[in-house]
Design brief:
315 residues; five-stranded antiparallel sheet; globular; four-stranded antiparallel sheet; alpha+beta; homotetramer; Chorismate synthase, AroC fold; 28% helix
Chain lengths: 315, 315, 315, 315
């Protein structure tokens, strides 16, 4: 329920304004020297975002590793890590105790559990993606050893693709106390052919599930995605040619690197749609737009899915 | 890997032209009188589709239940069922033994397993959705007892929404030996608030995973989906009001019935995008368009996800 | 719930007097030529047992494979198989509809499900071990490729170890309409060091769980087992020596081939205690003693656990 | 792999001399006021044991809860907790870096992972049972609400059952630098009929697996256990009678409260055999006998299995 993955399994915990958030990675291969700088750097990319859509909460996001490492090298045993919530100000939220904020999870948590942590969204806060980013950075180290690279970029914000117009838009939203959503484009390069399981654990199905577990995600498509619904088969098919050395080359990649749920060795490309942040209001410590930081989370999720498929296939 | 669900778990098996396809449902509540007519009717909806996009393979799709029932009533033990492949004509595919068809799974299966069933797509065939439809019909019976209803309709085919123009388009495609994709719209009504798990098993994440496990699906969105990426927060939020009897009413449903991964009691609505069928050619036994029959599979998948979330929550 | 294994996963189904019993193996490596003769032979060992403890039910135990094979070779997709219940005589049990037999599962199934299959024990019948034996034979083929061998023998029946006295005892029991239990000794040879997971999935823990899932098993011990509870540490420790070629040799094997939940390369040896068959009565079609056939089931369970640990480790 | 349970799931982490050990409980019902005093008391029972078999390591075993609680009440979200290793003295073990201690897990961990934490047994240390005890105490709170009670006692040490002789024996062992094993007897009272799953997740199978995941356990039996292997069916069967109010009463309990893998409402009783502690030597900080503290761990494991079966059944 709070676990993702079959072989490389991440279990996360923590509420936005509790003592700490963190995770346990079970199934990480032994002998990996953890790159603490990479984790720090990735977390700081997540924390900052761009200037104008910046959250004002200031967390040092110091990661403490509690287990699974000896001199910074993975033992093969569970890797537990925590990040203390140092800038937690539950008192800021005291007046939310009795209120269900629109388009937040306040109401649904109350319905599900009969109790909820009203302090800044509790378990539904975007802060719960911090452990995902930490684990994703470790997954990325393993992927790098296999020549696999993940890349993301903001494709559009509020429908705009021009950086200058986006910047103006964000400034305007901040002034008006409004928020915007957008689309992030992602790609995974270097995946070997053969990853993914044929029926319910297709590569794209696991990727989609991971993306929809990110707060505020409303849509996911891969390859040519929704646009393929308007194509003819004759223009959508990806022709293969055998090269002189016997290897296979695809002339196009409408499929997005996956066929029948299994990777074909081409780039896996996808888009993720985010709704606007539901918390409105001027000058507070919340974001105008989640996208800049969302790219880091998408990379982490893509890394977790990829490394799990890779380890599953190599058994 | 070939299993979906945590409590109501379906494991499927079978290749397109093997002896049989089928499934095992583990975790179905005891005491349910299976509605064999409903299953028959649902399978026949799947088999037929509309006239012009009809597959020419003729399967009686006779379901044989092997276990888990006493006088047609569920025992609480695993329900196994099989459907024999009676119109299997592997010889039709003999010349595919050495060929990788474009945008099919032939190549990827070969890469993954070092062997593949070349007879009509093997495990990658759309025929493997038959057990999903059977299990979905049983899931639907349970949902009906809780007042939960699932509905689907073809929203567009090749970008067209007008039935008359769609009909003409399909005829033209059949003549040209081409194929088309489209979008199916689905909805789940009557779900109680509180279903879904907060982090990686959010209701929409499980729904997305199930949809992307359907062959040819390239995109999924829920609520206002990709359109929300262009909205402002001020127009995207769903306001709640408390009614006189203390219950909650939402004035809008941009969220699509889920907040923070947990259902809020509103309709869960979503769209699923299908690419065109990759097998081209005139007058053969293949579809021009998978959508009419795809609606049945989407309903089944939505039912499996809903009943699993329902049973998970009631523990 | 009706599934065993993490990578090599067996799901079974079927009631004693339903249409069929069977199983689905998910995660079997591709490219394995199934040895149908081995399966037949193993099933016949299970069916026969010894003369005097023979069950009178006559089942041909014909295995039909429905999926996962092409020309008898595994495809990597789920392998489904069924065995029809041809000598099912539910009418023999009609008077059990209203009766809870002592030390049977009639009462507990009724309590759990509110319904039960009264025909010959239903899902609680020892006949449900047939699919385990089939899957175990396939697992054994994989183990053989790795030089791993499983062996079992009846160690004692009703406390007797002398074959002649056992034979006399069984004859007497048959005459008196009574039944007996006993102990089966098992061993797994050739397991590489390093199998098993450190905490809750220790090798011996998985083995114990598998053994206790066999009907009538009341005790399990491995290595020197219960006898170690009376030993001193100074006599129970297994000393290691390094051989000239650098490899490790253990001077004793009190530990039974496992330390800290992980195999050490020595023989894994264990004992399994069976209670007497609860169905009493003269001249009917039931066993006097389950042990001769139980050896086959123990071998199958040990094979399933071993192959799963082997595949888990090699990822 | 480091997780136990299906609904009430405990994942543990930590090495003996790392920064901390701990666990994450996922699936604990919401609204439970955690009894911190009970946890403290149970941990202290684990830490102390009896005088003469006492470990000299001094850990305060202070539990810090990081998530899942609001004002000490469970939120339904993951409950993470840690216990710092304050008396960790890795330098004591520096000379073990290059040594495989007999009957320890040093060698097998090295074989499995190619690396090991040589500091006091690392992940294989009995200290890793601390998180099990914490989670078990929480599970016990839930069980108590359902009138379910777990009890354990030391049945024998080194074959002795007389307390006075045991005391003398332990003193002698300490003087000689030797160690002893023994048998713990456990019972679970108040379990409703109907818990456990029929095939591979039988109640006793899950219980056995949990017990064999405790370090040093070599045998497990339930009901009359190994003794039943010498009984006749006519003396082993548990007769049932219907009482005047229609409820069922068992005249005997040879079965140990389980039939066909499902609880029958009677006491579940069992024995667990422990080998002697493998670390020998005089005056160091290690135990002469693990049993006194092992009772606490057995209670915790039994509680985890019971609460999981209870929650699984109530769905």
């Amino acid at each position: 329920m709070n676990t993702i993955g079959e072989i490389f399994r991440l279990t996360t915990f923590g509420e936005s304004h509790g003592a700490a958030i963190g995770g346990v990675i079970d199934g990480c291969p032994s002998g990996l020297k953890i790159d603490q700088q990479l984790i720090k750097k990735t977390l700081s990319r997540r924390a900052t975002g761009t200037t104008s859509s910046d959250s004002h909460r200031r967390e040092s996001d110091e990661v403490e590793f509690l287990s699974g490492l000896l001199d910074g090298v993975t033992l093969g045993t569970p890797i537990a890590f925590i990040v203390r919530n140092t800038d937690a100000r539950p008192e800021d939220y005291a007046d939310l105790k009795e209120v269900f904020r629109p388009s937040h999870a306040d109401f649904t948590y109350q319905q599900k559990y009969g109790i909820r942590d009203w302090r800044g969204g509790g378990r539904a806060s975007a802060r719960t993606t911090v452990p995902v980013v930490v684990a994703g950075a470790i997954a990325n180290q393993i992927l790098a050893q296999h020549g696999i690279e993940i890349h993301t970029e903001v494709k559009s914000i509020a429908g705009e693709t021009n950086p200058k117009r986006i910047e103006a838009l964000l400034r305007q939203c901040r002034d008006e106390g409004d928020t915007v959503g957008g689309i992030v484009k992602g790609s995974i390069n270097g995946l070997p052919a053969g990853l993914g399981e044929p029926m319910f654990d297709k590569f794209q199905a696991c990727l989609a599930k991971a993306m929809f577990s990110i707060p505020a995600v409303k849509g996911f498509e891969y390859g040519d995605g929704f646009a393929m619904a308007s194509m003819r088969g004759s223009e959508a098919n990806d022709q293969m040619v055998f090269e002189e050395n016997g290897s296979v080359k695809f002339l196009t990649n409408h499929s997005g690197g996956v066929q029948g749920g299994i990777t074909n060795g081409e780039e896996v490309c996808f888009n993720v749609a985010f709704k606007p942040i539901p918390t409105l209001g001027r000058g507070d410590r919340h974001d105008v737009c989640a996208l800049p930081r969302a790219t880091v989370i998408i990379e982490a999720m893509a890394a977790l899915v990829s490394v799990d498929a890779l380890l599953m296939q190599s058994h």
